[in-house]
């Protein structure tokens, strides 16, 4: 059984290393500030004992007040998992750092989120629409699209 | 491969569009291939031609009404999609499933895996140049599985059979004896294919060592299913994070070593044998009783989120659901395995000839309904 690691314990570890990065830690998920996403993601990937080498899924959710991007992380070596989240409050020009440099899984998935939700990922090598055509107006998965 | 530069001929890079409608692309998919002579320098996949906005459509439907939409994702393995979605909703709403339904789900999902792998293997051999002969044999066996599905739900492609809390109806009396007969006969058919194909010189020459995906890269790009296991990573959601009643069955997870097209083909054949092994055990232990728990017509899961995943025939199929307490999902996101497996396609193709591109593409076995959603 994949062990879901306690986000609270990991939040404590991260706070020690990078103070002020963690915005909130619920029982199952860890919410980090957008600007420190890359540091925390890098820490989770490279710290021995955590070794989150496998990014299972990247999902974007529009909560109207903010956008939330959810990273489901798994470690193949230790068979444990963690849900990492980050938020973006700017509705007109939402932007978050891209994690493609750490996990290339994010390549198409970030493009998909950019296409359907309109969140820009800074540092993405090829950020363009993936499902819809260039020139399509709006981002259909936003709650105010229809 | 030697490039034209190395043999002293100066040529310009040349861009070829494979698709969107091309017999080798298994659907509406386009590969923008940059060539140096015959050698692939770069490849950019272009897709979205089949985008139907299923994620948006799901937000407007009740939890039960979403099940037919999941059929239309990976239409070669609709039962696995149904199962993954129902597992996610059950996790979200805390619904338990009766024992008999769990076993039926396993039987159906494993039959689906065999059917899907038969298609994958058949069309892969088709891509290798064994035009239509192997695929006809594979489709003959797949046809029998489709007949079973016809028995249980009256459909042959988009089944809509699983329900939140179980399955839509119990199987008819003739179903179990028919599956028993199939499970008994199928290994013989597999042996027959194997003796024709396993050591086939043309197949070996075309696929061995071609389109290698190294282990580290396979993990980093998030590959799953036979593509990941062919690269030597022993990762199967059925073993790593057992869902339904998979922890009760004995089966092996085949692992490759080279990560080439041949290994990916071998994985699928081996997995079919393991699926038959699971089927034998599941049929033997199939309990009686209810096939569906008492679930209200309109499901209102509590506010929250859940990620349900299964090992589909093409890899880890996951559904991320967010509930706001209403009768429709607030967000419905599909972690589509072939969509993510495509990430590494360019890396696998670079340096190989244009004729190999078709085989490499065929070996990752994509389904455009799932890639584009």
Features of this protein?
heterodimer, A: 146 residues, alpha/beta, Beta Polymerase, domain 2, six-stranded mixed beta sheet, two-stranded parallel sheet, 23% helix, B: 373 residues, alpha+beta, Cytochrome-c3 Hydrogenase, chain B, 46% helix
What does this structure look like?
The complex is a heterodimer of chains A (146) and B (373). Chain A has a domain at 3-90: Beta Polymerase, domain 2 (2-Layer Sandwich), CATH 3.30.460.80. Chain A is 23% helix and 29% strand. Chain A has 3 helices and 8 strands. In chain A, strand 4 (54-62) and strand 5 form a beta hairpin. Chain A is globular, with a radius of gyration of 15 Å. The model of chain A has no long low-confidence stretch (mean pLDDT 86). Chain B is of the alpha+beta class. Chain B has a single domain, classed as Cytochrome-c3 Hydrogenase, chain B. Helices cover 46% and strands 13% of the residues of chain B. A 3-stranded antiparallel beta sheet of chain B has the order 1-2-3. Chain B has a 3-stranded antiparallel beta sheet with strand order 6-7-8. In chain B, strands 4-5 form a two-stranded antiparallel ribbon. In chain B, strand 7 (315-323) and strand 8 form a beta hairpin. Chain B is globular. Chain B starts with 13 loop residues before the first strand and ends with a helix. The model of chain B has no long low-confidence stretch (mean pLDDT 88). Classes of the chains: A alpha/beta (146), B alpha+beta (373). Chain A binds chain B through residues 1-2, 53-57, 59-62, 70, 72, 76, 79, 83, 103-105, 107-109, 116, 129-133, 140-141, 145-146, and chain B through 47-48, 51, 53, 55-56, 217, 219-222, 233, 235, 240-242, 305, 307, 309, 316, 318, 320, 322, 330-331, 333, 335, 339-340, 342-344, 372-373.
């Amino acid at each position: 059984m994949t062990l879901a690691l306690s986000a609270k314990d990991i939040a404590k570890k991260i706070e020690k290393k990078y103070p002020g990065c963690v915005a909130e830690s619920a029982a199952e998920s860890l919410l980090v500030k957008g600007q420190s996403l890359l540091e925390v993601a890098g820490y989770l990937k490279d710290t021995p004992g955590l070794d989150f080498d496998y990014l299972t899924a990247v999902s974007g959710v529009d909560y109207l007040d903010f956008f939330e991007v959810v990273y489901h992380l798994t470690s193949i070596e230790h068979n444990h998992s963690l849900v990492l989240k980050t938020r973006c409050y700017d509705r007109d020009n939402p932007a978050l750092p891209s994690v493609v440099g750490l996990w290339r899984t994010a390549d198409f998935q970030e493009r998909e989120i950019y296409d359907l939700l309109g969140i820009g990922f800074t540092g993405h090598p090829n950020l363009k629409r993936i499902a819809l055509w260039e020139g399509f107006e709006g981002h259909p998965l936003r709650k105010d699209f229809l | 491969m030697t490039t034209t530069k190395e043999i002293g001929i100066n040529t310009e890079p040349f861009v070829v569009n494979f698709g969107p409608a091309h017999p080798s692309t298994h659907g509406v998919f386009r590969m923008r291939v940059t060539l140096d002579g015959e050698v692939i320098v770069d490849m950019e996949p272009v897709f979205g031609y089949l985008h139907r906005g299923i994620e948006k459509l799901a937000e407007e439907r009740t939890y039960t009404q979403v099940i037919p939409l999941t059929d239309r994702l990976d239409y070669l393995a609709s039962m696995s999609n149904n199962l993954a979605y129902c597992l996610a909703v059950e996790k979200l709403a805390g619904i338990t499933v009766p024992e008999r339904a769990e076993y039926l789900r396993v039987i159906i999902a494993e039959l689906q895996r065999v059917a899907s792998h038969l298609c994958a293997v058949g069309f892969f051999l088709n891509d290798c140049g064994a035009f239509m002969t192997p695929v006809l044999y594979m489709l003959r066996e797949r046809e029998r599985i489709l007949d079973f599905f016809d028995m249980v739900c009256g459909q042959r492609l988009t089944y809509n059979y699983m329900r939140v809390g179980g399955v839509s109806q119990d199987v008819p009396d003739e179903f179990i004896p028919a599956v028993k007969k199939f499970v008994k006969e199928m290994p013989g058919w597999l042996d027959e294919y194997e003796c024709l194909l396993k050591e086939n010189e043309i197949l070996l020459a075309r696929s061995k060592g071609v389109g290698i995906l190294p282990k580290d890269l396979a993990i980093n790009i998030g590959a799953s299913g036979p593509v990941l296991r062919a690269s030597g990573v022993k990762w199967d959601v059925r073993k790593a994070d057992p869902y339904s009643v998979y922890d009760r069955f004995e089966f092996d997870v085949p692992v490759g070593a080279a990560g080439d097209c041949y290994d990916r083909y071998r994985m699928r054949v081996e997995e079919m044998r393991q699926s038959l092994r699971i089927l034998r055990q599941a049929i033997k232990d199939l309990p009686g009783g209810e096939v569906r728990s008492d679930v209200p017509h309109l499901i209102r899961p509590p506010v929250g989120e859940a990620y349900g995943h299964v090992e589909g025939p093409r890899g880890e199929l996951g559904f991320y659901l967010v509930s706001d307490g209403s009768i429709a999902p607030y967000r419905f996101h599909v972690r589509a395995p072939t969509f993510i497996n495509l990430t590494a396609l360019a890396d696998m193709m670079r340096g190989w000839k244009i004729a190999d591109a078709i085989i490499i593409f065929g070996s990752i076995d994509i389904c455009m309904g799932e890639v584009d959603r």
